[in-house]
Amino acid sequence: MPLHNVTVEDSSPIVVYRNYSQWIDSLNNAPDYSQYSGPSKGFNSNHNTSEVATVDFAFNGSAIYVFGSTGPNHGAFTASLIPNNNFAPVADYSLAPANSIENTTSTSFSNETKYKQVLFSQTGLDQSVPHLLSLTNSGEGLFILDYFIVETDYQGTGSSIAEYILDDTNLRFSYNGNWTSDNAGEKSEAELEFQDLFYNKTGHFTGVKGGNTVFRFNGSGVAVHGLWSYGAFIATLDDQEPVPINNTNRPLGAIYNRPGELIYYAENLGEKEHMLTLVNQQPMQFGGLDIDYAVITTTNLDSVPKGINITSSNSPSGSTTGSNGNSTVTTHNNGSLSNNHGAAAGSMIALLFMFFQILHLLPSRR
């Protein structure tokens, strides 16, 4: 059965920093800046805290891995993993619900600084239900988060998975309202260099509230990447409930305008045609919505449009890696953990985003 790994960066809007004022978004002038992962070249990042603070990540999958750094000034942290979406709105998640399948205290202390270390992992999960992973720093030292990897088992779907990219200029994207092309108009040398970080050097942006894009695709999963900055939008997949995604509360030192950021994804949707609608909720002076490209996951190679390059693995023990500009796409059939942790495309059941909105309403621990 083919396995699929997805990387979710610490800077993605689907990662929720519950006590956001107690977290620090890493600065690009830090001496070890290049040691961390990021959504695109030159935008490496980590989120760190020395306070008692929590980060939440909801996902569907058969396994979860958390990566970060360890060092002599790091301390203890608690990991709580809760299945299903029946979470009581509690203020202190150190009091894990009774149905928690994991509630452990660990440490990221080490005698010397090490990067891209597994801080927490759990395998053999029931991927038919969503899980909420909460990581709480003890306040006794540093906790530094780099990225997550979620592994999904495509059970009963054959021996291979394929991924292909549809750029923002593809006709499967329809734009309604006032949208502009990021590659339009005169640009300075610095702006041209920044534009090179976009897939095919193109993107679509709207700063009009209500401006929307409708994206139709064939496959089992979708991942949308864009220039994520300050703003909010609503995502509606097929006939599911609309889901608000909010990036207006960000940690101290937050770096905006990160190209290639994973801003939405969904998985295990069923191999058929789907429709995803993204609606901007912020006027330009408060942010906006920027679309760069989408990555489609499929188990049916015949559904890939003609002329589109794909990456796939057709043998039960093989894997294939392909480059798509600023991100790396890898598919695995043998269950090995991918070491590719760039701006990877991936997928997750859209219902998970509802967790994020609930968590934003929870009181902060002080």
Structure description:
This protein is mainly beta. The protein folds into two domains: 3-156 and 356-360, Galactose-binding domain-like (Jelly Rolls), CATH 2.60.120.260; 162-347, Sandwich (Jelly Rolls), CATH 2.60.120.260. 4% of the residues lie in helices and 41% in strands. It contains two helices and 26 strands. It has helices at 189-195, 353-360; strands at 3-9, 16-17, 24-25, 47-49, 54-59, 63-70, 76-83, 102-107, 114-123, 131-137, 143-153, 162-167, 173-176, 180-181, 204-206, 212-219, 221-228, 232-237, 243-246, 258-266, 272-280, 289-291, 293-298, 310-312, 319-323, 328-332. The strands form six sheets. Strands 1, 3, 4, 6, 9 and 11 form a six-stranded antiparallel β-sheet that branches. The protein has a five-stranded antiparallel β-sheet with strand order 2-5-10-7-8, covered by helices on one side. A five-stranded antiparallel β-sheet has the order 20-17-23-12-24, with no helix packed on it. A hairpin with a 5-residue loop joins strand 18 (232-237) and strand 19. The chain is globular, with a radius of gyration of 19 Å. Residues 86-98 and 313-366 have low confidence and may be disordered. The chain crosses the membrane at residues 342-362. Residues 307-335 have a biased composition (Low complexity). Keywords: Membrane, Transmembrane, Transmembrane helix.
